[in-house]
Specification:
Layout (H helix, E strand, L loop, with lengths): L8 E5 L3 E4 L2 E4 L6 E5 L18 H9 L10 H10 L1 E2 L4 E5 L6 E5 L9 E5 L13 H5 L5 E5 H8 L9 E6 L2 E5 L5 E4 L5 H16 L12 H7 L8 H11 L8
Antiparallel strand pairs: 1-4, 2-3, 5-6, 6-7, 8-9, 10-11, 11-12
Helix pairs in contact: 1-5, 5-6
Length: about 260
Amino acid sequence: MNEIYSDSIYYFQVVPFNGSDSVVNYQKDANEIFEILTPLNEIKQGYYQSISITNLLDDLRNLLEQHTMVDYADYATLMMDKFYSKLIGPDSHLVFCQYSQDSIIYEGDFDFSISPFSREHIFCQSWMNDKSLNYQLAISDYHNIIPVLQDQVNAVRNNNPFGEVIVVLEKYKSGKLGYDLNGKLVYEPVDKIKGDVARAIFYQTIAYSGLDSIHFPFFQDEVLLRNGIIWIYLIDLNEHAMITLIQYKEIEIHL
């Protein structure tokens, strides 16, 4: 079951039945409706106990290193089909481009090879050190990958840093490429994803900088990232719970 969000109330009903195919009998008096509030956060108690203010970055890095690599090719099955897609018919699914908020409908299982979507690295792959022993781990980290349209969005963002566009050169739906106040070429996604962008760049920088796996994006201006914090509360925490469950298998977290 997908489309379940954290800190939300859901109602469900259980109706017993017998039979199969066209001959099914339902218990007509089963009319009790159940209510459940999904948790905001259920990371295992004490998970951050090793983090100290005086050694914050190193402690966070040491903690984040304790995860397993998940195959980049499995993203379609683990994240597209099980998280990002919304069921709108018996076998029809709706999926949104995270930067532009445009959407497509697909049938059956999601397949990147026949879809206009691609897997976007928020922290660009070109910013990572391909000579590092941890390169494959860094480029496969699901915390840094989101689905976007390839031609209209991914190819346009390219390897440009994020920023607030003042002079628009190219625009598609809610995503745009252009120059910021300082005349630097930047890409600006839809507002609601900016908190996710800030989180992913912070995560990737902390998780892999000590492993010589990244080139720190000194050209990435802090303004959008800092302003992105105001959007952090719009992030669906269930997405990160899902990824955490996949990559940090020892963490007790419920979806």
